[in-house]
Amino acid sequence: DTGVSQDPRHKITKRGQNVTFRCDPISEHNRLYWYRQTLGQGPEFLTYFQNEAQLEKSRLLSDRFSAERPKGSFSTLEIQRTEQGDSAMYLCASSLSTSGGEQYFGPGTRLTVT
Amino acid sequence: AQSVTQLGSHVSVSEGALVLLRCNYSSSVPPYLFWYVQYPNQGLQLLLKYTSAATLVKGINGFEAEFKKSETSFHLTKPSAHMSDAAEYFCAVQRGSQGNLIFGKGTKLSVKP
Known about the structure:
The complex is a heterodimer of chains A (114) and B (113).
Chain A: E1 5-7, E2 10-13, E3 19-24, E4 31-37, E5 44-50, E6 53-57, E7 65-68, E8 75-79, E9 88-95, E10 104-105, E11 109-113
Parallel strand pairs in A: 2-11
Antiparallel strand pairs in A: 1-3, 3-8, 4-5, 4-9, 5-6, 7-8, 9-10, 9-11
Chain B: E1 3-7, E2 10-14, E3 19-26, E4 33-38, E5 44-50, E6 56-58, E7 64-68, E8 73-78, E9 87-94, E10 101-103, E11 107-112
Parallel strand pairs in B: 2-11
Antiparallel strand pairs in B: 1-3, 3-8, 4-5, 4-9, 6-7, 7-8, 9-10, 9-11
Protein backbone atom coordinates (compact mmCIF):
# COMPACT_ATOMS: atom_id res chain seq x y z
CA ASP A 1 0.00 0.00 0.00
CA THR A 2 1.64 3.19 -1.18
CA GLY A 3 -0.89 5.62 0.29
CA VAL A 4 -2.68 8.43 -1.51
CA SER A 5 -0.67 10.07 -4.27
CA GLN A 6 -1.23 13.37 -6.05
CA ASP A 7 0.25 14.80 -9.20
CA PRO A 8 1.69 17.31 -9.76
CA ARG A 9 3.01 18.43 -6.38
CA HIS A 10 3.38 22.01 -7.57
CA LYS A 11 1.76 23.94 -10.40
CA ILE A 12 2.38 27.52 -11.42
CA THR A 13 0.00 28.90 -14.01
CA LYS A 14 -1.05 32.23 -15.41
CA ARG A 15 -4.45 33.67 -14.72
CA GLY A 16 -7.00 32.46 -17.23
CA GLN A 17 -5.31 29.13 -17.94
CA ASN A 18 -6.88 25.74 -17.21
CA VAL A 19 -5.23 23.28 -14.86
CA THR A 20 -5.90 19.64 -13.99
CA PHE A 21 -4.80 17.71 -10.94
CA ARG A 22 -4.80 13.97 -10.41
CA CYS A 23 -5.36 11.92 -7.26
CA ASP A 24 -4.75 8.19 -6.85
CA PRO A 25 -6.42 6.89 -3.68
CA ILE A 26 -5.54 3.86 -1.59
CA SER A 27 -6.61 0.97 -3.81
CA GLU A 28 -9.37 -0.56 -1.69
CA HIS A 29 -10.92 2.77 -0.68
CA ASN A 30 -14.22 3.53 -2.36
CA ARG A 31 -14.57 7.11 -1.09
CA LEU A 32 -12.49 9.97 -2.40
CA TYR A 33 -12.58 13.56 -1.17
CA TRP A 34 -11.14 16.85 -2.44
CA TYR A 35 -10.30 19.68 -0.06
CA ARG A 36 -8.73 23.10 -0.53
CA GLN A 37 -6.41 24.69 2.02
CA THR A 38 -5.32 28.32 1.98
CA LEU A 39 -2.52 29.77 4.05
CA GLY A 40 -3.27 29.79 7.76
CA GLN A 41 -6.53 27.90 7.42
CA GLY A 42 -7.72 24.36 7.84
CA PRO A 43 -8.73 22.33 4.80
CA GLU A 44 -12.18 23.09 3.37
CA PHE A 45 -14.32 20.47 1.71
CA LEU A 46 -14.89 20.73 -2.05
CA THR A 47 -16.48 17.48 -3.20
CA TYR A 48 -16.51 13.72 -2.70
CA PHE A 49 -17.12 10.53 -4.62
CA GLN A 50 -18.30 7.10 -3.65
CA ASN A 51 -16.95 4.83 -6.34
CA GLU A 52 -17.58 6.76 -9.58
CA ALA A 53 -20.57 8.73 -8.28
CA GLN A 54 -20.04 12.33 -7.21
CA LEU A 55 -22.29 12.51 -4.16
CA GLU A 56 -21.81 16.05 -2.93
CA LYS A 57 -20.33 19.36 -3.98
CA SER A 58 -19.60 22.28 -1.69
CA ARG A 59 -20.79 25.77 -2.53
CA LEU A 60 -17.06 26.57 -2.71
CA LEU A 61 -16.96 24.55 -5.92
CA SER A 62 -17.85 27.19 -8.50
CA ASP A 63 -18.83 26.26 -12.04
CA ARG A 64 -15.20 26.72 -13.08
CA PHE A 65 -14.33 23.62 -11.08
CA SER A 66 -15.13 20.10 -12.19
CA ALA A 67 -14.15 16.76 -10.73
CA GLU A 68 -14.39 13.27 -12.12
CA ARG A 69 -13.70 9.73 -11.01
CA PRO A 70 -14.49 7.84 -14.20
CA LYS A 71 -13.80 4.26 -13.15
CA GLY A 72 -14.06 4.61 -9.42
CA SER A 73 -10.28 4.62 -9.03
CA PHE A 74 -8.25 7.79 -9.68
CA SER A 75 -9.87 11.22 -9.73
CA THR A 76 -9.14 14.48 -11.53
CA LEU A 77 -9.94 18.03 -10.47
CA GLU A 78 -9.98 20.63 -13.23
CA ILE A 79 -10.07 24.37 -12.75
CA GLN A 80 -10.97 26.41 -15.81
CA ARG A 81 -10.04 30.07 -16.33
CA THR A 82 -7.95 30.18 -13.16
CA GLU A 83 -8.05 33.25 -10.94
CA GLN A 84 -5.52 34.45 -8.38
CA GLY A 85 -7.96 33.49 -5.64
CA ASP A 86 -7.61 29.86 -6.71
CA SER A 87 -4.05 29.80 -5.37
CA ALA A 88 -4.10 27.20 -2.61
CA MET A 89 -3.08 23.68 -1.65
CA TYR A 90 -5.48 21.11 -3.11
CA LEU A 91 -5.68 17.99 -0.97
CA CYS A 92 -7.12 14.62 -1.83
CA ALA A 93 -8.16 12.04 0.74
CA SER A 94 -9.61 8.55 0.57
CA SER A 95 -11.44 6.27 2.96
CA LEU A 96 -13.66 3.25 3.27
CA SER A 97 -17.37 4.00 3.45
CA THR A 98 -17.74 3.01 7.10
CA SER A 99 -19.02 5.10 9.98
CA GLY A 100 -16.16 7.11 11.40
CA GLY A 101 -13.84 5.77 8.76
CA GLU A 102 -10.61 7.68 8.83
CA GLN A 103 -9.58 9.69 5.81
CA TYR A 104 -6.03 9.33 4.54
CA PHE A 105 -4.58 12.36 2.82
CA GLY A 106 -2.21 12.74 -0.07
CA PRO A 107 0.70 15.21 -0.09
CA GLY A 108 -1.34 17.84 -1.91
CA THR A 109 -0.90 19.91 -5.05
CA ARG A 110 0.14 23.50 -4.46
CA LEU A 111 -1.31 25.80 -7.09
CA THR A 112 0.06 29.28 -7.67
CA VAL A 113 -1.82 31.53 -10.10
CA THR A 114 0.20 34.52 -11.29
CA ALA B 1 -24.42 22.42 11.89
CA GLN B 2 -21.24 20.81 13.11
CA SER B 3 -18.10 22.81 13.75
CA VAL B 4 -14.83 22.82 15.66
CA THR B 5 -12.96 25.63 17.34
CA GLN B 6 -9.29 25.43 18.12
CA LEU B 7 -8.21 27.79 20.86
CA GLY B 8 -4.84 29.35 20.20
CA SER B 9 -3.42 29.64 16.71
CA HIS B 10 0.10 29.27 18.06
CA VAL B 11 1.40 27.33 21.08
CA SER B 12 5.03 27.32 22.16
CA VAL B 13 6.49 24.83 24.65
CA SER B 14 9.94 23.81 25.78
CA GLU B 15 11.36 20.43 24.88
CA GLY B 16 10.21 17.93 27.52
CA ALA B 17 7.23 20.02 28.61
CA LEU B 18 3.58 19.04 28.45
CA VAL B 19 1.79 19.70 25.17
CA LEU B 20 -1.87 20.73 25.38
CA LEU B 21 -3.75 21.72 22.24
CA ARG B 22 -7.38 22.67 22.71
CA CYS B 23 -10.36 21.76 20.57
CA ASN B 24 -14.05 22.33 21.21
CA TYR B 25 -16.73 20.93 18.96
CA SER B 26 -20.34 21.60 18.18
CA SER B 27 -22.56 18.74 17.09
CA SER B 28 -26.18 17.81 17.53
CA VAL B 29 -25.37 14.13 17.17
CA PRO B 30 -22.64 11.98 18.74
CA PRO B 31 -19.59 13.13 16.85
CA TYR B 32 -16.69 11.38 15.22
CA LEU B 33 -13.63 13.48 16.06
CA PHE B 34 -10.12 13.45 14.66
CA TRP B 35 -6.73 15.05 15.19
CA TYR B 36 -4.35 15.43 12.26
CA VAL B 37 -0.80 16.77 12.05
CA GLN B 38 0.65 18.62 9.08
CA TYR B 39 4.35 19.22 8.49
CA PRO B 40 5.38 22.05 6.14
CA ASN B 41 4.40 21.48 2.50
CA GLN B 42 2.96 18.07 3.26
CA GLY B 43 -0.47 16.51 3.53
CA LEU B 44 -2.23 15.65 6.76
CA GLN B 45 -1.33 12.63 8.87
CA LEU B 46 -3.91 11.09 11.18
CA LEU B 47 -2.87 11.17 14.85
CA LEU B 48 -5.98 9.67 16.43
CA LYS B 49 -9.75 9.44 16.21
CA TYR B 50 -12.70 9.24 18.58
CA THR B 51 -15.62 7.05 17.57
CA SER B 52 -17.35 6.55 20.95
CA ALA B 53 -15.60 3.30 21.89
CA ALA B 54 -13.57 4.96 24.66
CA THR B 55 -13.33 8.52 25.91
CA LEU B 56 -9.52 8.44 26.20
CA VAL B 57 -7.99 7.82 22.82
CA LYS B 58 -4.34 7.00 22.29
CA GLY B 59 -2.69 7.88 19.03
CA ILE B 60 0.65 7.77 17.34
CA ASN B 61 3.85 9.47 18.52
CA GLY B 62 2.75 9.48 22.17
CA PHE B 63 -0.28 11.73 21.67
CA GLU B 64 -3.64 11.15 23.28
CA ALA B 65 -6.95 12.97 23.49
CA GLU B 66 -9.86 12.85 25.88
CA PHE B 67 -13.47 13.23 24.77
CA LYS B 68 -15.51 15.21 27.32
CA LYS B 69 -19.14 15.45 26.33
CA SER B 70 -20.05 17.79 29.19
CA GLU B 71 -17.42 20.28 28.02
CA THR B 72 -17.81 19.50 24.28
CA SER B 73 -14.03 19.21 24.18
CA PHE B 74 -11.47 16.93 22.59
CA HIS B 75 -8.12 18.32 23.69
CA LEU B 76 -4.87 16.79 22.46
CA THR B 77 -2.03 16.13 24.91
CA LYS B 78 1.46 14.71 25.02
CA PRO B 79 3.38 14.40 28.30
CA SER B 80 6.78 15.40 26.93
CA ALA B 81 7.37 17.44 23.79
CA HIS B 82 10.07 16.56 21.28
CA MET B 83 11.60 18.89 18.72
CA SER B 84 10.10 16.67 16.02
CA ASP B 85 6.58 17.52 17.26
CA ALA B 86 6.86 21.03 15.82
CA ALA B 87 4.11 21.17 13.20
CA GLU B 88 0.56 22.36 12.67
CA TYR B 89 -2.23 20.39 14.30
CA PHE B 90 -5.83 20.25 13.12
CA CYS B 91 -8.91 19.07 14.96
CA ALA B 92 -11.81 17.87 12.79
CA VAL B 93 -15.36 16.61 13.17
CA GLN B 94 -16.93 14.31 10.63
CA ARG B 95 -20.17 15.49 9.08
CA GLY B 96 -22.69 12.80 9.79
CA SER B 97 -21.28 9.31 10.14
CA GLN B 98 -19.60 9.08 6.74
CA GLY B 99 -19.31 12.57 5.38
CA ASN B 100 -16.55 15.04 4.84
CA LEU B 101 -14.39 16.41 7.64
CA ILE B 102 -14.93 19.89 9.04
CA PHE B 103 -11.62 21.28 10.24
CA GLY B 104 -10.62 23.89 12.76
CA LYS B 105 -8.20 26.63 11.76
CA GLY B 106 -5.26 24.77 13.20
CA THR B 107 -2.72 25.33 15.96
CA LYS B 108 0.93 25.73 15.13
CA LEU B 109 3.12 24.07 17.76
CA SER B 110 6.64 25.33 18.30
CA VAL B 111 9.10 23.43 20.49
CA LYS B 112 12.01 25.32 22.02
CA PRO B 113 15.24 23.51 22.90
